[in-house]
Amino acid sequence: MDHRLRGALVCLLLLVLFLGPQLARAAGKNLPAKADSSEETQDQPDWVPIIQAWAQRPMESRLLLREGDLAREEGKNSVAEERLDRATLADASNAGAWFALARVHLADSNPAFLTDLLEGSQASLRSFAHQSRLAANLLLSTDLILAASFLWILLILLLRYLPFLHHQIRGLTQGPGHLEGSGLLLWIPVAAPLLLCLGVVPSLCAGSLIVWLYGGRRARVVVTVFLLFFSAQGFLGAFSTPLVGLRETSRSSLVQRATHESPSPALQNDLDQALTKNPEDADLLFARGLVYARQARFDESARDFQNVLKLRPKDPMAVNNLANDHYFRGDYDRAVAGYQHSAALDSLQGSTHYNLAQAYIKKLFFKESGEHMQLASRAGFELGTGGVRLPTGAVYYQSPGSWDSWLMAWHEKKTLLPLDFLAPWRKWLGVPPDQIHFWLALTLVLSLLLMKIFPREKLVYECANCGRLSCARCSGEHEGNVFCPACHGTARRARSEMVLSTLLRNRRRSTEFTFRSRVRRLNNWSIGAGELYSGLRKRGLVLTLLSAWCIFGMVFPSGLLNDPWRPVAPLPLLAWPRLLGAAGLLLLYLYSRFGRSSWRSRSFHLHPASMVRLADLMDSRGEKQMRA
Amino acid sequence: MALEGRLNDFTLEEILQLIALQQKTGVLTVEASYPMVLYFEGGELVGYRDRRGAAPDPLRAYLKSYGFFTAENWEHLKFIQSNSGLDFTEIIINEGHMSPEELLRVQHDVAQEHIFKGMLLRDGRYHFQSGRELLHGIRARVRVKVEGLLMEAARRIDEIATLEERYFDGDVRVKRTDKSTEGLPLGHRPLNVLQILGEEATVGFVEARAKISHFDVLQTLEMLRDLGLIRVLDLPQAAVDEDELIVAEETTRRTTLSSVVLVLLSLAVLAASWWLMPMRSYAERETPAVEREQAFRQDEMKSRVQHALELYHADKSEYPASLNALRKPLTLDLSSDQLARFRYTRDGADHYLLAFKDQK
Lengths: 628, 360
Prior knowledge:
The complex is a heterodimer.
Chain A: H1 3-28, H2 33-43, H3 47-55, H4 57-74, H5 77-90, H6 95-107, H7 112-126, H8 128-160, H9 162-174, H10 187-198, H11 200-214, H12 217-232, H13 237-246, H14 251-260, H15 265-277, H16 282-294, H17 298-311, H18 316-328, H19 332-345, H20 350-362, H21 366-378, H22 402-412, H23 426-429, H24 436-453, E1 460-462, E2 469-471, E3 476-478, E4 481-483, H25 485-493, H26 497-525, H27 529-533, H28 538-555, H29 576-594, H30 597-602, H31 623-627
Antiparallel strand pairs in A: 1-2, 3-4
Chain B: E1 2-6, H1 12-22, E2 26-31, E3 36-41, E4 44-47, H2 58-65, H3 71-84, H4 88-94, H5 100-119, E5 125-130, E6 144-145, H6 146-166, E7 173-176, H7 188-197, E8 200-202, H8 203-207, H9 214-226, E9 230-232, H10 243-276, H11 280-284, H12 288-316, H13 327-330, H14 336-339, E10 342-347, E11 351-356
Antiparallel strand pairs in B: 1-5, 2-3, 2-5, 3-4, 4-6, 7-8, 7-9, 10-11
Helix pairs in contact in B: 5-6, 6-9
C-alpha cells in the first residue's frame, strides 16, 4: 500500500478514536428521553432516597444502640460490640453509643474504651441538648443542696438567738426567769404557726430577718449570699437559660432537633405549632427548612429559606442551605451563585467552599472546584466530622451550633425558672413558686432598710468569761464586762479579787468543757453542726455542704431530668452513686468523730469574747493554753 | 516509824503526852466516832484539819455550830468554796468575814475543842506516822503547845458533867432576871451572852450565836446564874413549824401546773395551726409558675412517648397500633395511667396524631 494511503488511514482512525465520543455525545443530545434519563441517572444520582436515608441515620444509630444494649445485657459482647460500632458509625454524635461501646470494650479489657470515652465526651459536649440537660441538672442539684444547707444553717443560727426569744416568750406567759426547762416547750407554739400556717418561705424570711438584724457579721454575710443566690434565680436569665433549652418545644431545642433528630411527624408538628404562634420567627423557619430538606422536600425547604432571607438577608447559613436546595434540584447555576454569595458573607465557613467545589465539578469547572476545595480544607472542613457522611457529590446543609442555641435560649427569657420546679410542693412553701424570689429579695431589702433605720440592737451576748450566750435582760455587767447570769452571780458574790479571779476561771473551765462536749455531741449527730453553732466556722460550712452533697448522692443518684431517648430506670439500693454518697458521708463522719483531736478542736475556740481580760485578774486564753 | 493501837489500851492524852515529850513530827490519825487528824511538828500541834479533805473540817464545824456567820454568809462561803477550790481559811480572810488575828484566836479555840472532844473518846484506833514530808500541804497552820491543850481539856472534862446536869439539852430555856448588870465585874463574853439571850431564849439559841464553844457557853451561863442575872426555866413544848414545807409544796405544784398548761397550749396551737393554715389557699392557687411547671412535665412526658414512637417506627417501619405496645420492647418508663392520658391515632404507616386528652 502506498505510504500516503497508509498515513491517511491512520489519521482517519485516530480522528475516529478521538472525535468519535465527542461526536456521539453531541449527537446524543437529540436522543429520545428514556436514553437521556438513563445517562442523567448515571451522572446525577436520585438524591431523594439518599437524603431520606441519610436523615434516618440518627434513628438507625439509636436503634442499633438499643439492640447493642440488649445484647450486652444478655452477655453477647461480640454482638453488642458489632451493633454499637455500627451505631457510632451511623451517628457519630450519639454519645450514648460511644459510652455503651466503651463499657463493652472495658468488659473485654480492650484499651479502645479510652478512645470511646473521649469520643463520647466530645459528642456530649458538642450537643446542645446534652449541654443544657447537664447544666440544668447541675443547677437544680446545686439549688437543692444549697437550699437544704441554707435551712439547716439558718436553724443553727436561730438557735444562737434562742436565749433572747426564749426570754421574750417566757416573759409573756410566765413572768421573768427563763432558765426552767419547761420553757423550751414554748418553742412548739412559736414554731408551729410559722411552719404550718405561713409555710417554709415566710419562715425562712422571718429567720433571715432575725439573723440579719441581730446576728454578727459572718452570719449576715452567709445569709446574704444564700438570699442573693436564690432571689437572683427569678431575675437573672443565666439561671433560666439551661432550663429553657431543656424544653423540647423551645425555639433553641427545635432548631437543634431539626438538625440532629430524624425529621419525624412529631418534630414537624411541633415546628408547625411553634410557627403558628410566631410566623415571623426566622429561627423556626430555618429549622423547618432544614426538616423539609432532610425529608428531601426541596421545594418547601427552599420556600422556608427564602422566607428566612426576607427576615435576615445576610444570613450565610440560610443562603448556603437555599443553594443546597437548588443543587439537589439540579439547578447548578443558581446553586453556584448562592454558594458564592454565602462565601462572600462568611468566607471562613469551610462547608460553603466544599459545597461550591461540588457545584463547580457539576459545571465541569475543575480548576475553580480545586481552588475552593483547598479553601475548604484550609478552613478546617472535614467530611463527616460531627455528623453523618453523605455520598460523594452531595453538599452539606449548615445549622446553628450549640453556642447559637445557647444564645437563642438566653433570648427566650424565663419561660421556665428553677424555682418553678417547686410547684408540686407549693402547699408547704407558703407562697406561690413564682413569688419566692420576690419574697427573698424583699427580705434582703427590708433587712438593709431596718438596719439603716434602727441601730443594731445586740440582744444576745457572749459572756466575757465563759462565752455562754445570754439575752440582754439576763446578762449582767461587772466592771465593764458583760457576763451571763451565772458568771454575773459569781462575780457579784465575790468580794475579793483573788476569789473573783479564781471563781471565774474555774467557772470558765467547767463551762468550756461542757460546751465542748456538747458541740462534739452535736457534731456527731450532724456533721458540721457543732462548728456552725460555735460561731459559723468555715469548717462547719464546708462540712455541711459536703454532707448535703453526699446525702443528695444517696437519695437522688440518677439526677433529676433524664434524656427522653434514654430513660433511666431508678437505680437499685446498692448502686454506685448511692454507695459513693454513703462512703463520703461515712468518711466525713469518721473525720469529724475520730480525726486528730487537734484538728477537731482547732475550730472550737468557741468564745472569743472570753479572751477579754477582766481587770487583769484573769489570764488570757492563748492558743497554747487552749491546746494544753 | 509508826505507832498504832486502840484507844481503850492507850488513851489519847497519853499519846499526846508522848508525842509532846518526844517532840515528834508527824501525823496522828484517830478512827473513831469522832475522827481526828492531828499534825505535829517538834511536839507542837500545827494542824488539825485533814489536808486531803477526807474528814470533816473541824474549823468549819466549829464556826457553823457557834454562829460565827449568818445563813447568807454560809451560803456565800459554800458557793465560793465549791466553785473556787480555795481553802476555807483563805476564803474567809479574803472575803472579809474574819481578820487573820481573829482567825488565829478561833483556830486556837477549835484546837482546844478538838482535843477536848478527842479525849472524851473511849474506843477507836489511832495511828501515828512520823515524818516531816507528811506535813506538806497543811493549810492554815497553827502552833499550839500540846501540854496546855491537855490541861485545859482535862479541866473541861471535869466540869462539863456538872454543867450538863443543869443544861442537859439545847432546848432548856433560860430567862433574864430583872437584876441589873451595873457594878458587876462582867467581861465581854458574859455581856455578849446576855445580849443574845434577850428576855428569854433556849441554850441552843444562845449557843448558836455566841461564837464561843459549847463548854464556854455553859460555863458563862452558869456564872450568870450564880450572879442572879438569869434563871433556868422548864422545858418548852416541841412546836412543828410546817410553813417551809407548805411553801415548797406550793412551788412544786405551781411549776407542774405551768408545765401542763404549756403542753396543752402547745398542742392547741399546733392543732389550730394545722386546721387554719391561712396561707395555704394563697400558696396553692394556680399561678404562671404552676402552669409552666405543669406544661414542662407534660412536654417531657409527651417527648418521651414521641421518641419511643420514632424508635418503634425505625424498628418496625410503622407506628404502633396503640401506645401500650411501646412499653415492653422499648422500656418506656411511663405507667399505663400516664399513657392513658394521651390520645393516640395511627394515620397510615408513617403518620400519627398524639395529644393529651385534656388538651383541645
